[in-house]
Amino acid sequence: MHLLIIGGSDAGISAALRAHEIDPAADITLLLADDYPNFSICGLPYFLSGQTPHWQQLAHRTDFPGIRVLRGHIARSIDAVARRVHVEHAGALRPIPYDRLIVATGATPVRPSITGGTLEGVYTLHTMDESFAIDRHITERSPRSAVIVGAGYIGLEMADALTRRGLQVTLLSRSTDVLPTVDAALARRVVDELHHHGVRVVSGVSAQRIDAAGAGGTAFALRVADSEGGRHGADLVILAVGVRPSSELAERAGAALGVHGAIAVTRQMQTNLPDVLAAGDCATTYHRLLDAPTYLSLGTIAHKQGRVAGERAVGGACEFAGTVGSQSLKVFDLAIARTGLLGHEARDAGFDPLTVAIQADDHKSYFPGAVPLQLRITGDRRSGRLLGAQILGDRRAEVSKRIDIVAAALYQGASVEQLNELDLTYTPPFSSPWDPVQLAAQAWQAQRAARGRSV
Amino acid sequence: MHLLIIGGSDAGISAALRAHEIDPAADITLLLADDYPNFSICGLPYFLSGQTPHWQQLAHRTDFPGIRVLRGHIARSIDAVARRVHVEHAGALRPIPYDRLIVATGATPVRPSITGGTLEGVYTLHTMDESFAIDRHITERSPRSAVIVGAGYIGLEMADALTRRGLQVTLLSRSTDVLPTVDAALARRVVDELHHHGVRVVSGVSAQRIDAAGAGGTAFALRVADSEGGRHGADLVILAVGVRPSSELAERAGAALGVHGAIAVTRQMQTNLPDVLAAGDCATTYHRLLDAPTYLSLGTIAHKQGRVAGERAVGGACEFAGTVGSQSLKVFDLAIARTGLLGHEARDAGFDPLTVAIQADDHKSYFPGAVPLQLRITGDRRSGRLLGAQILGDRRAEVSKRIDIVAAALYQGASVEQLNELDLTYTPPFSSPWDPVQLAAQAWQAQRAARGRSV
Question: How many folded domains does chain B comprise?
Fold first, then answer.
């Protein structure tokens, strides 16, 4: 049985390792387009900030026992009938046959088609090579300022990273605030944190064009024009407006695409092509709360889907349990995390959402170092079902693992009441007798009851 | 409807507040034996360490709207037939009638019946008055050294606290290590931490007698003789060998007692006496994994049981969801947390437990500040059911909220496989694509499979 895997990032490597673990006799080949197997894309901002001094540290793993890893091998086409992949390496094309194929081609940063989008000094950030290019630019040209286009995860992490490298950063955000993946009340606090660290935030705009602003002197190398008439000088521009699934290769072979143009897969990670599976950023993601496929480009999902695909490819019976949309982010000294659905997402899905916000200390205020957390909890007014939560607070306040408590409850389809019933730990330095997520659940229940009476 | 509550610590106050919230018209009287309503017993070590400078900070709440709080009122007897409680206040006894009664009399520290156990300078720690006495002793007499008898939560927290106050601390532990509520492998690391901060640990011994060692000079004021012939000089002795439920008052009124001598209650917090409920440290605790009552003296449980008792007392329909045994502790710079059952507890309960240990970094090692966590996960070999987990690591490594993820899974009766499937957050500064608790789950699954093959 020859298992061929296209892609050597999180999903591909996870699939290979799991297949080998389940069936040590399986013949496994993994095609890697570049020279960097299993490098952490999520770690690129920390390499660029200088917090991760050596790029080699970014490898999740460096050892792949039982797996034939072919570096610099680019899959050019899949013949799903003849069961082979045409692979380019060192200028030559050759077919590699397979019994089972896993497509794990990942995602590609969206490069907005604006004038000047490919000028020197304008970068996207998704690969090691792009990271090296940006790092070289900073080291060799000592840019004074940067414009970052996009205020999602990568945009915010890069604002933090480049500020740390001494650049004056301007962040262009298309939404009213930043980070459209959380509610505005929290996003505004992220903006405060950015301001506090000297980042200029220009919101409600998109980039319209980029010009080379003239060489040398005191002028900046580039100038970004935004949709509201603003002009922003910069020596470096990062385009961070999101990613799209790299699904063309599979599509050309006949794979059906689903939401957001990702390869449509079942919970068994099966595509519509026989013996062709797909996993990770190139594929759709089953969402447990929506009970439907969605698209989310996240390392956690890539790892999980890869593990399932690898196990299925060698005959295992598992399936992907699905996402509940759990995500976290550090920006300077803030942690922001969410899980489940935002109010508008829940409404679109047919729920009757109520979101309640509270502030609570991360631990008993009488123990030194207590800090306030902002919590928002969303539940279905009709059924009482828990639908999601968002937390923002100091990065030392266990924000992300608190969201994970809610994520664990969501996984099981818990009610808001059950979140409040959980037997969570307490000691004054770490929490309160009711954890803040439970205080939020209680506030939600009280507000639901009060509204019920007033209707 | 007159609701009478005996006890003004966590359970009693929670009951009163919840009853008032559900039925603002309810007539609620709360009897408080001392002058300190709703003070955090868990916070006493931090008052004594000096980290909580003002004792008033230890109040969870100071405002009790809609509740008649009678301070210095001691319930002397309950007449469950005539529905009244005989209450002593300022030397006089008077009956207070009730329609519903909640007994929340808490727990009492066990004072071992050893010679010298009541000498001056020998203390237990459970009330504000005891805290004041110890604090006064330290402030006025400048003791150089302390012997702490007992190495559970209070013993360890007091070792930390008194070291911080400048005392040389000797800790006498009855078990082979310390902290018998976690596995020995973790307990040994707690011992290392104690040693690292200058605490002498004498294990496998109990205190046999305490002598006044002679006044003045360089001699210590007290001398503790242990069961192995050791002699330990001290100027201060703390007895911290556990608590027992304060259930005598209810027992004399005809309440049936259950496990550990606690008042037997249903999940509705009902005793066997009509219209008499009980909650908190004086009552038994339903355990979800054991599906049986147990006894656990924890603030989290007292709050939850109090909330249920208060709601039921005014006609609500809720019930106590039960504990899964979640507990956490900070000792110097270490956090230790557990949830569920230890291996031997699971075996006693009829499970076929397998415990697997791993070490994993709290977050990606390429981001500064990563520290190793010690994780132990216990599951049932036959069914694959998750039974418990223990984590130890640096106090900044989100140990307690990581255990809470497992606690949330345990609440729902999850399998070890489902723990691995949870959609938890990831960003390099806070975790890994698989959280350490999931890596532990994977290691458990692999070891279970390997043992299955070898049998």
Answer: 3
pLDDT number for residue B264: 98
Cβ-Cβ contacts under 8 Å, B433 against chain A: 10, 60, 299-300, 302-303
C-alpha distances out from residue B401 to B156, B230, B411, Å:
21, 40, 15
> Token digits for A159?
């604002």
How far does the CA of residue A96 sit from the closest CA of chain B (Å)? 31
A20-27, long-range: CB within 8 Å, 24+ apart, which pairs? A20/A65, A20/A66, A20/A67, A20/A310, A21/B446, A22/A310, A22/A311, A22/A314, A22/A315, A22/A316, A23/A314, A23/A315, A24/A66, A26/A1, A26/A66, A26/A314, A27/A1, A27/A2, A27/A3, A27/A68
B351, part of any domain: yes
Spell out which residues of chain B touch residue A327, defining contact as CB-CB under 8 Å. Answer: 425
- Intra-chain end-to-end CA distance of chain B, in Å: 64
Angle CA A210–A216–A217, to nearest 5? 110
B263-277: per-residue pLDDT in tens?
A: 999 999 999 999 999
Task: Calculate how close chain A gets to B401, using CA atoms only, in Å.
Answer: 6
Residue B114 forms part of a structural domain: no
The verdict on a CB contact (< 8 Å) between A425 and B366 is no
CA distance A179 to A186: 9
What are the chain B neighbours of A321 within 8 Å (beta carbons)? 418, 421, 423
B426: closest chain A residue by CA: A328
- Give the model's pLDDT for residue A454: 59
Poorest-pLDDT segment among A23-32, A107-116, B348-357, B414-423:
A107-116
Are residues B300 and A424, on separate chains, in Cβ contact within 8 Å?
yes
Mean pLDDT of chain A: 96
CB B13 within 8 A of CB B38: yes
The mean pLDDT value for A33-61 works out to: 94
Most B CBs within 10 Å, among A156, A319, A425, to test the B interface: A425
Ranges of residues in chain B with a pLDDT under 50 are: none
Q: Which of A366, A400, A410 sits opposite B430 (nearest CB)?
A: A400
Q: Are residues A333 and A412 in the same domain?
A: yes
The CA distance from A262 to A246, in Å, is 8
Measured between beta carbons, the chain B residues lying within 8 angstroms of A438 are: none
Clarify whether residues B331 and B450 are in a common domain: yes
| Percent above pLDDT 90 for chain A | 95
Q: What's the CATH code of the domain at B359?
A: 3.50.50.60
Whole-number Å distance between alpha carbons of B426 and B403: 16
Two tokens, residue B88: 């002593």
The answer to whether the CB atoms of B407 and A423 lie below 8 A apart is yes
Q: Specify whether the CB–CB gap between B174 and B228 falls below 8 A.
A: no
Contact B329 A427 (CB under 8 A): yes
Contact list, A324 vs chain B (CB under 8 Å): 423
Q: Which of B334, B361, B401 is the best residue to mutate to test the A interface, defined by the most A CB atoms within 10 Å of its own CB?
A: B401
Closest CA to A117 of A145, A164, A149, A79: A149
Give the E-state strand segments of B110-264 in sequence order. Answer: 122-123, 145-149, 168-173, 200-203, 207-212, 222-226, 231-234, 236-239, 243-245
Tell whether B104 and B248 lie within a shared domain.
yes
Q: Do A404 and B396 touch (CB under 8 A)?
A: no
Contacts of A401 in chain B (CB under 8 A): 398, 401-402, 404-405, 425, 430-431
Q: Find, in chain A, the residue whose alpha carbon is nearest to that of B40.
A: A428
Which two tokens mark B51? 């980290």
Domain that holds residue A148: 122-239
Same domain for A218 and A250, yes or no, is no
Closest CA in chain B for residue A367: B52
- Tokens found for residue A75: 């899959």
Single-letter residue type at A235: D
Same domain, A99 and A128: no
